[in-house]
Each structure stands twice: as structure tokens, then as C-alpha cells.
């Protein structure tokens, strides 16, 4: 990359209300890493970081929250990960900006990372690096770490007033980070009155949760939910009570509840890992009567969320990647139409003909075999969310689908996480994403849509059609592809509803080879 | 980077004697990651990996050996680290080559990572990436993970014949990897008859150990020791017996010794961490009567090592970095000569005048203040090693010093690890190393010296003076700098000996700010 870096005792130094921070200038972009934004006692609410004397270094990322299981992801090729030392002292954020001029007042984008509410960090993916987005969009990019899993979301509220909010300690950390942004981002050239929160997967879920947390009102002004909403089902089964289970295994009685603050973290790891392979992901914000009242489907749209413009969307091939697949020859694009149709009939049975008809109508540019690899995890929830806001009369919700086929394995529908490098203008250094000439074009459009939305609350980009909001009368949808298209989502929604009524076993990526080799598991 | 990557079901696939492996082609370089080279039961010798059917993926790095403490290094800015999931199943290697043509027979360079014998991995530093070196030198680069700390070097030989070599299990893994190279590297375009081992810090120590392990004879043909030898002192104190201590704490009696194979790893972490902040680094190969007989200072030069050409050297400012320093204004280059001399007199007292005279003779191009930041950890050992081989009549040992000032903090002597990006031709993407126009030149010369040494057993590069061996009569030394110089090491040796007799407290990097902020500690 041959980057020119400035890192001197007195340059670049920024004065925040709490004290001075020294970062880096990399090819003209100012970078500040590992800024402590809060302190927190385990299971308690965070407190703002204290002021300091002198200049603190901000050139190394801060530790990330301990994870119950740090899985070596079998998708580390398509989604390159940064693993990093873990520590309960994890409330750190990172900033990329084009200048620390307090007069400049640029739009601020605060990224909330994925990994459910259980894993991940603000630097977990290579693609989360904010340098290129900051430079391209002249925006201030912030990424952050916060408490996760047991540390962020264990409900101890039944065991004492001091633990009243422990089921939302992780969300409270994020809110504390947003308060830090309100107080300090001006010093980095950002506008505290124009803050966009955006996130993907678990990060999308966090954005959705913040829209339903009254105490977050005023701390952000636009919101982007990427692959963050799963359709809620009535009467879904509730898991075991994690708190009760942990206390029993730890042999901590209610009278000695404070001992849980001293339990070595590995004990949580052991107990939860013993419960089964995926239980470590079973964490999320706890509904209560004041902090978080539940999703928009449970609690209706919170008042402060109504005026917040929202982008919501997801990715065509989510959780249905067919790279590394051993399905047939592993290359879906080599199949003839006849062969693909036969496979679909085999999978779907009688509804196959109607499904194919609906698919061809919704995706006229795609091969019919893509029906077999099409997301059914996030798409129904995305439509539910769009409809809920439309039905409330809101006209500030924008829907999208990222459907650009990726070049790996002779052509693969975009996977869970695949749009992130485009959003961050980082697509050209994520190995399997790069198509010369095309990648540059598509990431320019996607990144500009996000940045213009951050600036004005309406997404749009040169080279793309007009992106209208999804309203009760106008079901507009942006389809990001080698050529972007904005059109009615009706035919796609018909397909999604039909497929929801006719479930079939998806052709999933066969991870057997990789899994055998690495012991890795899937990441959410 | 906008790299073009090929990763298809059938390309690139290489047939090894054990089975087929599928990797990547990145801008023309063939890359295979996470190749399993051995299996091992805990505390037992490794066994070669078994053959398999079909094609295994080699696109994701394999897990790294568990560490007693994964420290978040406070030097993560000057030495960017890759942290990665840890697993006892850690015998994996990675290959970079320009083509997998079995006829091509390129020199093979096998990198042994640093971190003492206790931490690290074959991908621990960004700079370990072999792509650029392979492309620049048309060589095959291999990096690898192996057992470390308790898992690699705990001496259980007193508790049963099956544990006879447990104190060298980590070294045995490396030897097994070198056997894998012998058997399989031809399939990747490498020459099994021309293998160079190279390593830095602990990795240099591993290279030195392999030169003293008879069963490694024939598995490699040249060796490079970078910052790997510390002067041995007679009568140095021996630490506590780690084996006895662990068994006592674990309450394992000799009759139940096998239970140590099932102890959860975190128990080792706890016990050793409780012993003190640096005890987790106290591991190394165990001397015995057949596997490893001791260093060349203890056991003389092993027969097989005599015909192996060796490069040995280190870095000027090792463990004396002054970036982030709060010594004076933090910028040594801003001090006047008078000020610097006064500081030296204050530190050294009476011997200051002679020290300064010797320093000016040895380093006429340097500022006098650099005397305060000059390595005294590895340099005496480097000279001892050169002299030991010279005194044995060998004429195939090459000495170097990497002394190029780095641009960070207004000019900093090169730190421990600073030469690695130059060796791997990766200097231009390690942030604080880059000086436009100069970096390209110096890394071309350093990397070519390593590659030509790998090819012919004699180091040399276009643009650099002739690099002669250090012999009994000719004390030649290569000084890598913005302009490289090859000259007699006599005046430098005089300085090193004088300074060894007049120790003073070095002006170390003051890590207080960073340490307070991150809780990080130094790495070896």
C-alpha cells in the first residue's frame, strides 16, 4: 500500500473535553484507535470515562470483549476476520476522519458490529476499517467494542436493584459510546447533530434495538439495519433461563449474588459451552418496562424512532452460500436450465412450478438455479419491518437487496456479510470480492448511498437510479447489482411469501471438508 | 490492493504424496494456507499426517498453539500482529510459491516465528506474509505453527519412557514440518535439496537449536539467525522446576502422570500466570543426551551444522526503542550534541568519554545520542556466535547489523522485529517503516541477500557491497542502512565489549502511557 504515516509526539493530537489524544495520519486520513469511552463494573451500567492529564496514545486498538467461544470461522476466506486480545475492560472506540477541525461538522457514521449479541468486535472484519469510507465520503467513521454475551446481556435484575439493567449492559455501553460521540466528536471534525448508526447482522439487531430504547433518543439521527431482522413467530419457544442455570452451576445463592462479579470468565465459557454447540449465541437485549420495551413487532414503533430515517435490507444469498459446496460439481453456473429445474422439482415437489414462475418474475436477470440459494432467514423479516413502518404512515424507510454475484467458485450469490466491504469502500482488498472495473463501480454507488443518507437522510448516488422510500402506497426497493435497479418490490415479496409457505431444505454450503480440517463452525 | 484472486473447485489444486490440496492464486502467486503436516498426542512426539481422499481446502490458516498469556502488545503499532484462534491441534503450515511445477525446484525458505518458545505463530506478524518475498525472489516461502510453552517444552521425561522427548515436543514438530517439506515441497515447485531455515528472536533461537539437533541433519541446508542469541553467562541461576511445580499444583502423582494429558489448558494458564508476570516466557528446548545436546557454547558445534552456511545478526536499537518515550521531549534527534553528551555522562559516569570515543569510531554516521539506545541484549551473543564458528575454522558464517533509522517519532533506531518487513519485502505496508524511495531500495537489498543466500549459500545483492564471511582472520560485517556498508566489525566489537563491562540502565521505551491504557506488556 506504500502509505505515508505521520505519528509524532505532537502530531496528530486532538483535544477532547476529557483530555488529549494522539493518533496517526495515514495518507491524509486521521486515525485514532482504542479510545476508552466508558468504564464498567461487571453487570453494572457503564460510567463515562474520566478526564486525564497529558496526552494519551490512540494508535493501538483496544481489547475486545471476551467471547464464550471464539470460533475459527470456516468462512474466514470470504469474510476475513481480525482476532484480537480479549479483556473485560472492552469499552473502546476507533475514529477515522479527514481532519480534526471542530468547525468542519461532517456526518458521523457509528458502526455496530455483528456476531449476534455474543461475539465480534468493532475491528472483527478487515472490511470494518473506516479509512476508505472516511476518505471517499468525507465522513467521520466510528467503530466500537462493547460488552457481549454473559457480560453484556445476563439478566440479574431479579437479584438486586444494582443489577436492574444487567440484561442490557451491552446496549448501555453502546449508548454510552453514543454519548461520548455527542460530547467529543466535534473535536474530530464530526457533527454531533448528524449521527448515523449502522450495523449488520447482530449489529443490525443492535440498531433496531436502539430505535426501541427511549434513552437513546437524541443520540443518533439516521439508522441503517443490514441483515438484522428475522421474522418473529408467535409462540416461539423460550430457551432455558440462562441466569438460573448459571447460578446453579456456579453454586451461587441469591444471598451471595455479588460473587458472580468475581467468577473467572472461563467458568462461564465452560458452563455455556457444555450446553451445546450454539448456545453461546443465545444472547440479546432483555425486555423490561423502561430500558428496552421490545421490538417494533412486540411494542410498536417507539416515538423517537418515527422521525429517524431508516435504511433496511439484506443480501440475496445469505446463509445459502454455495462456494466450497459439494452439491453436484460445486459450480451452480455450469448447470443447464433443465438440470437446475429438475433439482428444484426434486427439492420443492409440487410447488416447484409456481416458485419458478415467481422467481423468474422477481429476478428476471438471474439463472433459475439461484432460487435454491436465496435467503429465507432475513428477507421475510426485512419485509415485515418495511411494512410495519409503512403501515404507521412513515415515509422515511428505504429498502434494499444486495444481489451482486461474487466471482469466487465460478460465481456465487453474495453471502451473509458480503455487502459490508462495499458499504465501507473496502471491496477491492477483500480477496474473493474483486472484479476489476465492476467492483470499483458498485462500491462507489453503495458507499455513496450510505454516505449521502448519513448526510441528508435520503440515500442516493451518481450512477444509480432514484431510491424512493418504501411506503404504504409505493413499495420501492433498491437492488444493488453490477447494474443497480430501483423498482417495486411486489413481485419479490410475492415470492418471499410463497417460499415461506413452502419451506424446503436449502442447499447450504457444505462445510464438511473445511470443518473437518479446521473444526470451524458457522458464524452469525 | 485490488488483487486478482483465483479460487475455483479445480484450480489451483496440487497433488502431494498424501493427497490433493486446493489453494488460491493471488496476482499470480500460489498460496496454500493451513496445511496439516503432523498430528500429535499431548506431550508425545508428532506423527506425519495421514493420507486423504479427494481434495482438501487450503485457503484458511490453521489454528495456532494455545498461549499461556496472549498479551496485547504495546508495540502493536510498530509490529502489527495477527491474533488467531488457538487450538492444541496446531501443526499447520502455509506455502507461497510462483508455480506448483515439480520441475521448477526453487529455493525453499522455512520461517520459524518468534515469541520465545512460548508464544507466537507462523502468521503472528503482518510482515510474515510470504507473498511478496516469493514473488520478488522467485522462492518458495513456508511459515508454520508448532507446539509452544507447556505443550511444546515441558520436561516429563522423568515420568515415563513415553514422555522421553516432551521437553522438545515443539522442536520435534518443527522437524516433522521439515520432513513434510522434504516429502512434499517439490509438488509446490520447491527444491527439497535446497531448504533454508530462518527465524527471528525465539525463531532465531529455534534455528540455532536445529543446528544442534542431530535428527534435523539433512532436512535443511542453510540457516539464518535473526536476533536469536543472547550471551550465555556461566553460573546463571536456574528457575524453579516447572514440571514439579505444575504436578504439585495439579495434584497429579507420578503414578497418575497420564492425567496431565487431560488437564484443561486453562489450568496451565492459571498456575503459570500466578507465578509472576513473565514466567509464561520461561520455556525452551531441554538438553538431554540424544535429542538436543545444548547450544554451541555448551556442546560445541554439531557435526551437521559445520557445513551449513549461517547468517547471524541483529538490530541496532533492539529493546531500546525510544518512540513513545517520555525521555526529555521524546525526540532524540532534536537534542544538540552537547545535551546528548551530558545525558551520556550522567548515565555512564567516568567511562562515558571512552564509550563516546568508541561509539564514534564504530558508528561514524550516527548521532552520539544513539549510544543510549543501542542494543545490549543480542549483540554480545551475536559476536560470541560468530567467533565460536570462526574459531572452529569455519568460513561460511555471515554477520550483519540492521541499523536503518525508522521514521516514526521523528527518527527511531530500528527496534526488535524491525528488520522482518525488509526481509520479507513487506516493508512498504508496515505503517511506521515506510520512507518513500528509501524503503523500496533497502528492502530490495535485504530481501535479495536472504534469497541469494537461500539459492547459493552466499548472501549478496545488486546495489550492496560484497558481503564476506566472518572468519578468524577477517571480521567482516554487513551494516544494513539507507546506504549499506560492509566493513570490519572490529571497532564495533570493541564498543560492545567495553559497554558489557560498563553496564548502565538503558533508556528504554517508556510504555507507561500505553501500558496504562491497554494493560499490554512487552513481547520477546
Features:
Carboxylic ester hydrolase (chains A, B), 2 domains, AB_hydrolase_fold (chains A, B), about 525 residues, homodimer, alpha/beta, three-stranded mixed beta sheet, CarbesteraseB (chains A, B), hydrolase activity (chains A, B), Carboxylesterase_B_AS (chains A, B), Rossmann fold
Q: Which fold does the CATH topology of the largest domain in chain A refer to?
A: Rossmann fold
CATH class descriptor name of the largest domain in chain A: Alpha Beta
Which strands sit side by side, in order, in the main sheet of chain A? Answer: 1-4-5-9-11-10-12-13-14-15-16-17
- Give the second-level CATH assignment, the architecture of the largest domain in chain A: 3-Layer(aba) Sandwich
Q: If interface size is counted as residues with C-beta under 8 Å from the partner's C-beta, which chains form the largest one?
A: A-B, 54 and 55 residues
Distance between the termini of chain A: 31 Å
User: What portion of residues of chain A belong to β-strands?
Assistant: 15-25%
The tally of domains of chain A stands at 2
Biggest β-sheet of chain A: count, sense, barrel? 12 strands, mixed
What is the average of the pLDDT values of chain A? 90
Please work out how many helical segments of chain A DSSP would assign.
Answer: 15
By DSSP, the count of extended strands of chain A is 17
